[in-house]
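ingest -> validate -> predict -> emit
validate: passed (alphabet ok, no gaps, 151 aa)
predict: started
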Amino acid sequence: MKAHDIMIRHVHKVKQNDTVRAVIEKFIEHRISGLPVVNDRNEIVAYISDGDIMRYIGKHKDVVIDSLYFAAVFKGDHEKFEERARNLLDLNVLDIATRKVIKVSWDEEVEEFAAILGKKRIKKVPVERNGVLVGIISRGDIIRHTFKALL
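emit:
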C-alpha cells in the first residue's frame, strides 16, 4: 500500500505569509490540530501544530519560590497569559512553525513511514509529489486502511 492509496487529498493548509490567527481559525473551524505551511507554488515550507502554539504561550512562565511558604508562585497573572495569546495571533506563521518537516513521497510504501510516525510521535505527515503538497496522512488513516480488511 502506498501513500497515495490512503492519503486525504483535500488538505487544509496555510500560506507562509499568513498569521497565526489564520491558523487558529482553521484549527477551530475544521477541528484539526496541525496544518502544512506552503509557499505560492504549493511547496511545503513548514508545519504548524497545536504543540507549536502551546510552546509559545507556555514558554514565558516565570516561577518564583516563596521561601516563607515553600510554595511556587507564578509571576504574572491571567491577563499576561491572555496578552501572550493575543500577541501570538498577529505573528507570522513561520515565526513559530516547525521548518524541518517530515514529509512523505506520493509513491512511498506505508510501512516505510508508519514507523517514523510512531517513533517520532508525529500525528500527521504531509504527502508531496514532485515537491508539491498533494495530501496528508494521519496515524488514524494508516490504522483504518491497514486493519479494516482484517477485522
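DSSP finds six helices and eight strands in the chain.
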